[in-house]
Amino acid sequence: MPQKIVIIGANAAGIEAASSARKKDRTAEITLITKEKTAGYSRCGLPFVISGAISHFKALTVYPLAYFQMLKLNLRTQTTAIAINIKEKTITVQTLERIIEIIPYDKLVIATGADSFMPPIKGREKHGVLNLRSLDDGEKIDAAIKAGAKSAIIMGAGLIGLELGVALNEKGLQVTIVEMQPQILPQLLDADMAKLVQTHLEQRDIKCLLGNAVEEILGEEKVSSIKAGGENFMADLYINAFGVRANTQLAVDAGIPIGETRAIKTNAYMETAIADVYAVGDCAETTHFITHKPICPQLGTVAVRQGKTAGTNIGGVNSQFTGVLASTVTKLFDIEAGSTGISETVAVKNQIGIVVSTVNSKTKAGYYPSAKPLRIKLVVKKETEHLIGAQIVGGEEVTQRINALSFAIQKQMTVRDLAKADTAYAPPMCETWEPMVLAAEMALMKLR
Amino acid sequence: MPQKIVIIGANAAGIEAASSARKKDRTAEITLITKEKTAGYSRCGLPFVISGAISHFKALTVYPLAYFQMLKLNLRTQTTAIAINIKEKTITVQTLERIIEIIPYDKLVIATGADSFMPPIKGREKHGVLNLRSLDDGEKIDAAIKAGAKSAIIMGAGLIGLELGVALNEKGLQVTIVEMQPQILPQLLDADMAKLVQTHLEQRDIKCLLGNAVEEILGEEKVSSIKAGGENFMADLYINAFGVRANTQLAVDAGIPIGETRAIKTNAYMETAIADVYAVGDCAETTHFITHKPICPQLGTVAVRQGKTAGTNIGGVNSQFTGVLASTVTKLFDIEAGSTGISETVAVKNQIGIVVSTVNSKTKAGYYPSAKPLRIKLVVKKETEHLIGAQIVGGEEVTQRINALSFAIQKQMTVRDLAKADTAYAPPMCETWEPMVLAAEMALMKLR
């Protein structure tokens, strides 16, 4: 009898789980359940439709219906999973027509993702208070711009907040970003590196109000201003980019254990504590490669890797998820910023003895026109000289350097190794001495 | 007594040796000898001055005279080393005024580089027959263009030949490149990857005549045409980019052993077989990281790494050169091409059992406008699943991927590791599934 695989969620993690299971098991009955109208679209692309870089929201559909048909995946959109019964091995769903159905499973994958978390701010029910998580959210922001919004306050200076801030700025809106932490991108960068990015944003007329929370959203029915740090800021839109929270209600109700990050606990096989139930993507807690502590990084790349691991195991081939370095990158106007492994801040918090080195360099040979600045920071474990984290801010060529340093961390490269690395060079693309190598050399000097 | 360090050669390798020695030994007397008028310039930048991307040759001077003064390096330009006496530990030099001097050394570094090799083609003494190795060579080509040259034949489709071909094409010359091998970039790429680059060059009107040698250079005093493959090609310039040969005459005359690559034999400390004599850069033979065979890669990055190793050892701190992966990259019009480790061709020649995987992808998310094509080829050792080579051709973001794969090879990453790598992603810069990871996955499937 073919096994019945049910996946709750039909975006990055869920679809990857379905696809990977299908590759190993040609006969399984695979069903994907999603409450959304559209499955398989890229959330990460939303800010770029709003900015106009991508022409329309439909372009974000990475997996067309033909994909599901080709792989014989039974996709059920606008269908809400309302309960999991781990004893009977069934899930209960409700269709758009409010019909209740019981669906049995042999293997269940929870890929319920995360939702925007809106702190309980006074006035948050007003018109003009928006999120950016789903296609629907994106379309609402787009509509507000088309309706003539001239200014926006964004709460949260994480990736989504900043990428959306840039998009709104490019659309001509006056943008102020309010962040409770004393720096932008607190998950991604240390304060010294974040400051470079902040300066770039401010040069482009994005205001950053740090170390402050939004206290109240003012206006009649519609947002007219917000109060933050004791001041009033006029704004047509208030956008909540405070962060997302793993969608765990279904799991909690079913008795599936939740971890300390408030996401669903998993092991290296992406199994939850309950037999035959997996969790992947933004709702799943996993382990950090360096700290070995629980983490729920809520990144697309981690989601697909977890989905693949779960799907491969369900398909009958043993596969382990190797942990999270949380390699991340973003582009904001003319600057790219990225990181991998742990920051200085996280190292200190975890009482890991470190040495830090930072170099300023250029993205091309010094004498080559249009070379852009590049700053690299390495975090090195003092005890072993291993590279354990890296941050880069620069005008170009940041992403693949982050990948290079991620590989280095994964393979336990010491800065002694890195200082001797064999790198490629050509004047239009880099310096003779690769800045990553120079940063390793500088770390070595500090270690002596 | 301070030690006397003498370095023959004052470009990448020589200056790096001098600088590294100085860092470890504050009192040494360090002398650099060069027959050239200018020291410390970037040869790799020459094609970009000819193309006009860089405004003048002077911009290529990476180390101004102030640098030598600051580090107290005694720089002697237009001074030719004519003999080494390894018993007396002296070298003999001749100044521009033809004065002969004997200079004693405690440690000697031979960084004599390489010169263009001109095969014995009939007619090679004619006006309009040029090389591209030194600043002088660059200025001659520049002058020929300014004098109205309309067409050029370049012998050799290596890095210099192609980069110069692009430069001349951008200056409006009709360019034909003749190459004896049946493909372009034979040192860098396998034929399948090289073909992509060739097509790009041909679309820009550079002719490639492969599998043919130049048989004769025709014309009265001046080049008017060349004969190749039985045909006659009209040309105002004939440029020899056949390759370079290590300058070893001084070493040979002094009885310093030469290796099978016809460069000076060295060990991991960059010592020659003679006590207190080192060789670095384009004149030095070293060991390949994968094949463990002698190699003389004649790359700027290798030169500086070797110079640093020799200088550090001379300065009294033990340092080993870890071998060559020959990571290389070039930009030709709108395409970047690079490689690291060994090619399929070299693996087969060395009877290494391999699996090869190739993926086509894009440089941005598929839905993001202006994504450019990217092709990655991995060479994997069958016995151990280790990555041992990689080649990439793409519209952008090639260089740092080559570095990433170089780190992977250095740290003995298997494709099983690489298929699980934690990579960074953002729609304007890359795909969710990094193409390097997909290529590893494909290699894994072939290994099963």
Task: State the main characteristics.
homodimer, 448 residues, alpha/beta, 5-stranded parallel sheet, 28% strand
Count, helices of chain A? 12
How large is the radius of gyration of chain A?
23 Å
Could you say which structural class the secondary elements and strand pairing of chain A correspond to? alpha/beta
Q: Write down how many β-strands of chain A occur, each being a DSSP E stretch of 2 or more residues.
A: 26
Q: Could you give the order of strands across the largest sheet of chain A?
A: 3-2-1-7-19
Distance between the termini of chain A: 64 Å
Summarize the structure.
Two copies of one chain form a homodimer. By secondary structure, chain A is α/β, with parallel strands linked by helices.
Explain the layout of strands and helices.
Two copies of one chain form a homodimer.
Chain A: E1 4-8, H1 12-24, E2 29-33, H2 46-50, H3 65-70, E3 73-76, E4 80-85, E5 90-94, E6 100-104, E7 107-110, E8 114-116, E9 129-131, H4 135-146, E10 151-155, H5 159-170, E11 174-179, H6 191-203, E12 206-210, E13 214-218, E14 225-228, E15 231-234, E16 237-240, E17 244-246, H7 249-254, E18 264-265, E19 277-279, E20 284-287, E21 294-295, H8 300-314, E22 328-332, E23 335-341, H9 344-349, E24 354-362, E25 373-381, E26 387-394, H10 399-410, H11 415-418, H12 435-447
Parallel strand pairs in A: 1-2, 1-7, 2-3, 7-19, 9-16, 10-11, 10-16, 11-12, 18-20
Antiparallel strand pairs in A: 4-5, 5-6, 8-17, 13-14, 14-15, 20-21, 22-23, 23-26, 24-25, 25-26
Helix pairs in contact in A: 1-8
Structural description of this entry:
The structure is a homodimer of 448-residue chains. In chain A, helix 1 packs parallel to helix 8 (300-314). In chain A, 26% of the residues lie in helices and 28% in strands. Chain A is built from twelve helices and 26 strands. Chain A is of the alpha/beta class. The longest helix of chain A has 15 residues, at 300-314. A five-stranded parallel β-sheet of chain A has the order 3-2-1-7-19. Chain A has a five-stranded parallel β-sheet with strand order 9-16-10-11-12. Chains A and B meet through helix 8, strand 22, strand 23 and helix 10 of A and helix 8, strand 22, strand 23 and helix 10 of B.
